[in-house]
Amino acid sequence: MSVGIDEISFYTSSYYLDLRTLAERQGTDPNKYYDGIGQEKMAMAAHDEDIVTLAANAALPIVERIGTDAISTILFATETGIDQSKAAGVYVHRLLGLNSRCRVVELKHACYSATAAVQMACALVARNPSKQVLVIASDVARYDLDSPGEATQGCGAVAMLIKANPRVLEIEPESGTHTEDVMDFWRPNYRTTALVDGKYSTKIYLTSLKRSWENFCEESAVRYGDIDYFCYHLPFGKMAQKAHSQLARVNKTGQTPEELAAQIEPTLIYNRLIGNCYTASMYIGLCSLLEQLNEDLTDKRIGLFSYGSGSVSEFFTAKVVSGYQSALNTVRHAELLKDRTELSYEEYLTLYRYPDPRDGGQHVIEPDTQGRFRLAAISDHKREYVER
Ligand code: CAA
After folding, report:
1. Is 233 a known active-site residue?
2. 6, 42, 176, 214 — which has fewest CB within 10 A?
3. pLDDT tens across 133-179, in order?
4. What is the rounded CA–CA span in Å between residue 351 and residue 340?
């Protein structure tokens, strides 16, 4: 029996800022963003969107297909939790009308926790193959204005149905992991934006890749040459290029720059238009590969590298299942990205600075999002979500 991803669906806000607009305001060369970091646009959440509404919108097509009683567990991964106690997935559970027997829990470790969730989901299914687990990764990436990280913001959510004999990807059981206590990117409870030592974080990312790969080679018989495509965590597109060059160097592959690019470029297309979504980024990259590559990927092996600052990382592999194309949400994703609205710099600032009330008063939030679900109010410190 194989276990893996049966369906994968993502959602992002209908607003974006073009990084040329940001560059103009900052007096920066736009090529620094377009070429230097490999990003064009960054998604900005509407004022009535957050990790819950993004997540519910991402999971909606899956639940509409399989029904509200079919999911046994929701594992909700996020860096941008909205509550220190209550799991955000419980709101999603209600919005989607799921059965009360479905358990829900939230997982945290920076951008890595979605991969922990996927591995835990696979273990739950391996123990009881009749179960179907919904993994959701949802984040709103925020850095300080005028900081080097500002151009690498974004927002989005991915929902993945993990089950036995999946239709899209069989996840292979071996993986290589690396954990190290470092301060490269973190967000104390009292902050809404991340603190980051940018250059150091890219260095730690690359070291973690090397260590995870070494551990993977101890655990698995799969070698570099057995892997066709590579999906890396995508804080920005250029990071994948740095990572893939490093992995090729470690393995002394002697590949040309063109050969290296061909193994990662299809994974970068969506992220370039959405920006960093922390936990969801690598899995949006996976959607990009499966949906945008004009080639049948059946039986191809994909290497996935998940990195969460702080730091925990994991390298694992998966094989594409025959007929996977019919299980994808390609058209829906294309429409989502096509129908977005570009923001002016002033509109971006208004969304960025939109009040986050903390006084316990009654705060009604005007409708704005194009998604099915929205945050309608924050009253008595309680968040109220509704269907639009
Ligand atoms: N035309 C073309 N390229 C240009 C250029 C121009 N006019 N100007 C600069 N560039 C290039 C630079 O040469 C550089 O390329 P290399 O990295 O290949 O040398 C690139 O553009 C970036 O330029 P800088 O290094 O000067 O950029 P910066 O210091 O202002 O910021 C950053 C870069 C540190 C990554 C910053 O975006 C940042 O802090 N981001 C947030 C942290 C982050 O994403 N870290 C990644 C690892 S941690 C992680 O993965 C977890 C997570 O999700 C956050």
Report:
1. yes
2. 214
3. 999 999 999 999 999 999 999 999 999 999 999 999 999 999 999 99
4. 15
